What does this fold into?
Amino acid sequence: MPKHKKAIKLFILLSLFCSVLVAQEMDKVVFVESTFKPNVEDAEKLNVIPGLTDTLKAQPEINYSVLPSRIDARYKIKPIKPAKLVGSPLDKLYNSRIRLGIGNYTTPLAEFSIHNLRSKEYAVGAYAYHKSSHNKLKLGNGHKVPAGYGINRFSVYGKRFYKELNVEGDVGFNTHKLRLYGYNTSNFSDDLPSMDAEDIRQWYSQFTARAEVYSTDIDSTALRYRVAFLADYFGDDYANSQNHVEIPASLSFMVEEFRIHLHANYHYLHSVLDTHRGKNDYVFQIRPILQKKGDQWEVHAGANIYFNSYGSTNFYPEAQLSFQIVEKVMEAFFGIEGNLEVNHFSKIARENLYITPGLNTKNTNHKISGYGGVKGAFSEDEGYKAEIRYSSVEDMY
It folds into this structure.
């Protein structure tokens, strides 16, 4: 019981104290007369770990010197073995070839060639050809006429290879037999003209010879030259004949950045023709050209001059400008030129076998030709060229 009594007494005292506090009047103002000097004392965090910091920094001084010394590094070069290049195999060559055939209208064909095999020193060979027809042709009025023909060719050729030039030549014999069977069928309605094969025969024969020397130096700045001698005899079955000698020559060389081209050609003609009997004619041509090339353009200018046995002189200007529009794709070109076309009996007869026997024509005067266009390539295998040309010509045959 004593403990209970003490607890009761303590409870009564606490109750009285609280009632006294509640009973105090809280609206009173208390004035304190004194000088207020707030001071905040220095404080340090107790959780910061103190450390030792050295404020004296010592910088080391480094002194050094270079002592040159040669290092003897010996190196032995090991030679590289040369690469072995395997070239493409060469096609097999045969030293002879023969071809035989036959076609409609009883047309046999035979061709034979023989030559040496590959050689770095020379090339020689021979060639023979025959083609003919042995039948009659039916014209529009029902008349059957002998229209057979025969072509024969034979030649022997040779070429010698040297370090910077080649020498070559050939001789040959050609014949061409035909029938002059054509006539105006409207002029013969009842009595048909006689067509004996021997009476309407025309036979052309030709002997040719050629010799030529030319340079083979591939250097673009090297001297280039070419000289040739050509001779032929041409005759027909009507006692018409013509001897023709031609000597073409060319020379090309560099002068600083310009290339000079000099071309010359000489024609000599001795004709025994029905329309031009026992006449000697000549034509001499000289053609100087100055050429200059740039990275994307090229220009050449010169003249073409002819002297002939008739005492006249023909002069033609010559110039051309070309430049790239799109590199390796499109190139434009413009120019003017002119020339004298030398016509003679064998030239005309080879173009048209049915001409009047012994026909002689004037030389064709191409007074001037102006042209322009574009050319280029779509790819390595495909190209194109478009050109517009205007020409003024006299004495066309």
User: Anything to note?
Assistant: The chain has a mean pLDDT of 87. Residues 2-23 form the longest helix (22 residues).
